[in-house]
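Quick check before the chapter quiz. The format below is the same one you will see on the exam, so make sure you can read both the input and the output lines.
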Amino acid sequence: MIDQNPSSASPPDDSNFPASPLAALGWDAHWAAAFAAHAPPGTTPARVIARHRGRWVISGAGGERDAVLAGRLRHASAPEDFPTVGDWVAAMDGGGDGAAVIAGVLPRRSAFVRKAAGETTTAQVMAANVDVALVLTSPDDLSARRIERYLTLAWESGAVPVVALTKADACGDV
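Here is the expected output.
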């Protein structure tokens, strides 16, 4: 029997979840468990929202801030393991210029990967932990082969693709 009196129900235990800024970024029980298992002591969770060569912008309970990689992480990781947009990281205070230090990267649920340009073909992660990928196209420029390539890329990344037709009102023959 379901208890219809909400005042007698015990509140959910959300003591493992940081304040709402993380929840708005996608923080959930899965990420809390991953953080507890992989994060070094003294770190807090944050999400990578931008990457600029050797610097990152992360967002956490304290808001947005610049970040750099810990030396141990920079030298022990392959470039495709470096944090990218969408990754959850373990960050700590410490940069002399006020930047946070990324001490660890939580395991990814999904990753959009392409071959990096250059003489050697290495993997380049474009985005991580994407749940849904929108494939947008106009009915005037409909290419089944292009859509198939994008759908394949989305499925291989671990995201669920959704095809959306845009500008239908500007199309002569929908």
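If your answer matched, good. Helices lie at 20-24, 29-38, 71-76, 144-157.
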